[in-house]
Structures are given as structure tokens and as C-alpha cells.
Amino acid sequence: MKLYEQLCQTLQIRINRGELPPGSLLPSIRVLSQQYQLSKNTVIRALAELEDSQQVIAQPRQGFIVCSPQSPSPIIKPRTVSLGATAFSVLGAANEPDKLALGSAYSDSRWPTVSWFYKQQAKTAREWANNDKRCSHYSTPPGDPSFRSALADHINMTSFACNSEEIITTHGAQEAVSLCLRAVAEPGDTIAVESPCYYGTLQCIEALGLKVLELPSDSIGGTNLDALEKALNTWPIKAVLTNPTYNNPLGFSLDLINRKRLINIANHWDIAIIEDDVFAELGHSQQYHTPLKALDTENRVLYCGSFSKTLDADIRLGWVLPGRYYEQLNYYKFVTTIACSALLQQAAAELLKGKRYRRHLSQVTRCYSERVQILAEDVHQYWPKGTQFIQPKGGILQWFELPQSVNSDQLFQQALDAGIGLSPGNLFCADNRFQHHIRLSFAHYSGSIKQKHAIALVGEMMDSY
Ligand SMILES: Cc1ncc(COP(=O)(O)O)c(C=O)c1O
Fold first, then answer.
1. Measured at the alpha carbon of residue 240, what is the angle toward residues 258 and 234, in degrees to the nearest 5?
2. Are residues 156 and 303 in the same domain?
3. Under 8 Å CB-to-CB from 311, ≥6 apart: which residues?
4. Bridge-based pairing state of the strands 63-66 and 100-101
5. Residues 365, 341 within the same domain
6. 8 CA distance to ligand 1 centroid (A)?
């Protein structure tokens, strides 16, 4: 056995015995090399092996962290969702203005570009107000041509080849996803999603009378495509709904090999893919992943995006490129909400035309890359041993696995009583599988005294379980 293999085996034994528990930091390369009398290159090779087999993960500026063993697979079968009213009230309570909303997926909208956008909108509104010849009209689907043209240019430059005729404007990504589901499925049909899954998606599936099939997923590898293939062999699945880049809540990005595999699976089984890509432009080192849409050879991917995570959720402007489902989508958009505001679309067109939006993205992603780190440091300091998490490389959300003893529904209530909003794990599934998990957002986490105090207090609450 080679030296690096011996070290790999020794570290594996220490991990299995619990001497190096999940979530703990491995000794540094220098320390390991001294401890085992090996060269640094040998240690690096051994760590790379452990990383390849997903037993440890490299974290920038920290080192290598021990991963948790895969959680036991749930029984995979279609089921109805019944999150509805409960989720709505949980979220409502956590987002009241007097609460420190640590769990909500709101972007930070205090940026000059967001102000610029609103001023631009006000400028157009003033022009309209002073134009007594202007006739009121609906900006009927597919939406304002200037916006769709500017958006197509932007997508062409940053992501994949498209033209404005493929785009339909929507009220945010939530409407886009909802219209996609209606276009590809009928009540009673089954949609495969990642598990855990963004609760807004689950609620939408529930409201449309669809069933969900939850595919085990994790923060490192993302969606388990073996499970998808097995499920397709057993159940009639209409579509896969995925959030493959900087996923909510897990933070993973599906790698290119698995993106291609997912497309091949969809082609083989002749199913649709709804790609919810709201975090695509929020890579912390500005890394863009190839969207599934760009790999789609059969026009079966329905691609959804919005400005909610990059600018402000209040803008309520999104889009969908529905591929072969274009006609159905256009029709559903019209009969559901007739149109989106032309005022908004025209302001967004102006924003996309220059370099301002791209400059903004580089500013915000730099900021989020610092904030994710600050939150990680505070959690390491204040939360109990056994708290595990993999730091995401993009987006604004961090998923935590807490010690088994912690009941996150109760923790949610306790934190809420203390004025702190969290998102408990069970919001992200159709059963109660994520009882000791929570999701936080680092979008606003600058490590202020108030925020640190809140994290410390939640840590103390967990200690009492
Ligand atoms: C994955 C995902 N999709 C869709 C949405 C809703 O986006 P929008 O505000 O554009 O409707 C969210 C909001 O948190 C989200 O996280």
C-alpha cells in the first residue's frame, strides 16, 4: 500500500470511530505531515482521495471538514403535500417586521443599482403621467418587447444562446414555476423534486393538486440521479423540477456530468425538466454553471428566472423560456394574470442594456462571499459540536444539520419568542424528515452585535436539548 493510501485509511478509521466526527475540522496539512512523518504532497494526495470519496470537503480558509454519512434514504414514492396553511403561518410569523429574520431568503436590496432601478421606474412613470395622449393597455404575453430583447441579450452574453421570442415575462419565478407545472402536468400527476426542496415549490405542487416524489439530495453531490432512474422505472413521473445551481436550501450545484445525465434521463423517459435558476448569477466567485437549458437538445427544459435574488423580491419580475411548451405557457399566463407591468419591464430593459447590472452582480457576490464566511465562523463559535454544514459557493442560503437531539420545530418557536426568525427543516419536505435541520440566510449577515447575539442565543437554546 502506498503512503498516501495508508494515511487515507488511518484517517478513515479515525472518522468511523468518531474521533473525527462529522462537521469537525481535520488537522491542517502541516500538522498531519508532522504527526505522520509524511511529506506535504503525500498528505495532500490522501486528502484529495478522501474528498473524491465525499468523506471530507475542502472549505476555503478553513481546511478539510468531515462530511456526514449519507442520511438513510426515505421511502421514495409519490405523495401528496400538506404544507399549505402551516407553512404560510410559520413563514408569516418569522418575517414580522419586529423579528430578526435570519431564516428568510431575502436578498440584500440596499445597493445603488436597486435604487437606480426604482428611480428609472419613477422617471418612466413621470413621463407617462405627463403624456396626455398615452392610452392604457395591457402588456399582454409574452410581455414587453424591449424587456425581452434586453433580457435575451443578457442571457446570450452570460449563459446560453436564445432569442427574445422564446421568453415570456412573469410575476417572479414563482409564477413562472407555477405556469410550467400547469403546462406539463394535470392534477394527480407526479413531479420529482430534490429533497429537501424549497417550500414555495412544494406549496405550489400542493395547490395544483399534484403529487411529489422526493429525491434524496445532499449539499455535496446534489440530486441523487440513481434514485430518479429507479423511481422512473416504478412510477409515472411527468417532470423533474430542479433548482440545480446554488440550490435552495442545500446550496449545492449539480456538476456538468450530472447535468448531462439528467438531460439524457429526461430524453430517455420523455419527461419535462423545469429548471428554476433564480440563484444562477450569485456564484460567490462569479462562477456560472452551464444551465440544463443550454444542454437541452430536445427543447424539453422550461427555464425560469427572476430579479428577486439579485435585486429585490419586491420587483416581482421574472421570466420563463418554456421550450416546446411555449403555447400552453403563453395561454396560461394570459388567463391567469393577463399581463405584467410594462412600467417594470421597461425599467428592467434599461437596466439590462448597460453594464450596470453586471457590475452590480460582481459587487453583491463579493459581499455574499464574505457574509457566508462570517456566519460560518459565528456558528462554529456558538453552536454545539455536532452541528454540520457545507458552505455553499453561491446564493444566499445555508443549510444546517443540527445535533440529533434538537427539535427544529420547537427551536423555531423558542427563537421566535426571542424575536429571531429561522426556517425549520420540516418546511422543506412532505413528511417530517428534517426534524433536526434548519435553513438560514446570510444575505444580511454582516456579523453585527445583534446578529452575533442572536446566533449565540440560538446556540444556547440548542444546548438545552
Ligand atoms: C428556488 C426558488 N424559486 C423561486 C423562488 C421565488 O422567486 P420569485 O420571488 O422570483 O417569485 C424562490 C424564493 O425564495 C426560490 O428560492
1. 95
2. yes
3. 107, 109, 111, 113, 114, 117, 360
4. unpaired
5. no
6. 41
Residue with CA at minimum distance from ligand 1 atom 16:
248
User: What is the mean pLDDT of the segment spanning 125-131?
Assistant: 93
The answer to whether 105 touches 95, Cβ cutoff 8 Å, is no
Q: How confident is the model over 285-298, as a mean pLDDT?
A: 95
Cα–ligand 1 centroid distance for 90 (angstroms): 17
Distance CA 240, CA 300 (A): 11
Give the residue from 355, 380, 412 where a domain finishes. 355
Residue type, 281: E
Closest ligand 1 atom number to CA of residue 176:
11
Question: Is 2 within 8 Å of 39 (Cβ atoms)?
Answer: no
| Burial of residue 402, with CB atoms counted within 10 A of its CB: 0-12 exposed, 13-18 middle, 19 or more buried | buried
Share of the chain above pLDDT 70, in %: 98
For residue 461, the tally of other CB atoms under 10 A from its CB is 17
Structural domain for 337, as ranges: 141-355
Is 88 found in the same domain as 7?
no
Contact 228, 215 (CB under 8 A): yes
Question: What's the pLDDT tens digit per position in 373-384?
Answer: 999 999 999 999
